Amino acid sequence: MSIILGFIYWSTIVYKTQQTDDDINAEILELSKVYEDKGYPGLVVLLSERIERLRPGDPTLYLLTDHRYQPLVGNIAPWPKVARDVKEGWLEFQLEADERQGGDREFTARAKTFVVENRFNLLVGQGMKDLTTLKALVGRALILGLILTLALGIIGGFMMRQTLKSRLGAINLTSRKIMQGDLRKRIATRGTGDEFDELAVNLNSMLDQIEHGMEGVRRVSDNIAHDLKTPLARLKNRVEVLKMRVEQGSEEEAAVDQIILEADGLLATFNALLRIARIEYSEQRKGFKKVDINSILYDLEDLYEPLIEEKGQTLSVEIGTPMEMFADRDMLFQAFANLLDNAIKYTPQNGQIVIRSFQSEQQWQVEISDNGPGIPESEYEKVVQRFYRLDQSRTTPGSGLGLALVFAVLKVHKLDLAFQDNHPGLKVIISANPREISELERTVNEVRSSV
């Protein structure tokens, strides 16, 4: 826009300057014809007549001097004290106005000079007051136009930014929910057919493909667990029958006991897989009701206190104000139990385990911390994946599904799971935003009312 406005300014001033030059050239042409026809006396008479007819404020300038630049006839004096312009005798200069010019006391003039018979110097020009005024007017108009353009650009940019923020905000909000694990979320379209709708359609198609692929992988693992659970249970029963037929205290009995132990581990793994699948697909949250989180923590303390004492550990429970939410109590109890069981498993003898809960205006929070070996920060996001186990824990019993089950339970309840270094040990943080809890309660009530 600056380039366009600059071109307008330049072309306007150039046009006016050219018009002035054309007028001066026309005057000079007419004076030269008079000089050719009537000589010096005729030129002087014509100049005198024209000067007499000039009105105050008329921009036309005449000056005839001798070879020493002494004025003979003219309405300006003396000869301008400026260097001659090398371009065809053109020059610009400042003049003091007399009473006949009127207006400003000083003005800019543009003139052309030439020599008559090597004896006289003739100057014909025009005052540039109109051009100067035009320059100022056009300059101010263009500056105001540029300011207006800038203001409109800022307003338009702000409006466009708000539009982009609104459309992209909806996409980002949905994307965050999808990243949190809710693959069923889709980006809403407005039906306008614009680029944002096209982007939303493409992203939704991509999400459909991803969800379909992940559902296939989940169903394969769930079907394997379901299909193998029954024959594995039969195998265990037959091995237990076989145990009754072998001699007690023999090597055969020890081998059978080991087979039964391995079968129990496999059954526990399959049960955990099926449990996770049921949790992930429990869309209606039928078992949800008002639950006091602190009561679950007290029950955990009562249940695990004998085991903690047996291992020579200490358990400290710091319970804050009552915290209630819509939840499946059995699911939450299982999730908290898995976390506490991990803390007991990896905390050394004489170690300390702390359960702490508190509530603020922003959120409520439950912490389970220990002073065991902990988890490297780089592994925090991986330990909630199915069958993922740290290298140092591969020699201990387990299937790598405990934290995956915890993550599935908390996701259904819209709770956040985080890990922190306890220096030493690990601190597991379960937190909830009251707004999310209220939204969950509203969703559960809507589902129940629709059913």
UniProtKB/TrEMBL annotation:
Q: What class of enzyme is it?
A: transferase
User: Which terms in the GO cellular component ontology are assigned?
Assistant: plasma membrane
What UniProt keywords are attached to this protein's entry?
A: Kinase, Membrane, Phosphoprotein, Transferase, Transmembrane, Transmembrane helix, Two-component regulatory system
Any single GO molecular-function term of the entry would be: phosphorelay sensor kinase activity
HAMP domain location is: 162-215
Q: Which InterPro entries match?
A: HAMP_dom, HATPase_C_sf, HATPase_dom, His_kinase_dom, HisK_dim/P_dom, HisK_dim/P_sf, TCS_sensor_his_kinase
Q: Which reaction does it catalyse?
A: ATP + protein L-histidine = ADP + protein N-phospho-L-histidine
Q: Where in the cell is it found?
A: Membrane
Xref: Pfam families: HAMP (PF00672), HATPase_c (PF02518), HisKA (PF00512)
Ranges that cross the membrane: 137-160
Q: Report the PROSITE patterns cross-referenced here.
A: HAMP (PS50885), HIS_KIN (PS50109)
Which Enzyme Commission numbers does its entry carry?
Answer: 2.7.13.3
Domain Histidine kinase stretches: 223-436
Key word Ligase present: no
**What is the top-level taxon of the source organism?**
Bacteria
CDD domains to which the protein is assigned, alphabetical: HAMP, HisKA
**What's the protein name?**
histidine kinase
Question: What organism is the protein native to?
Answer: Arenicella xantha
The root-end lineage is: Bacteria, Pseudomonadati, Pseudomonadota, Gammaproteobacteria, Arenicellales
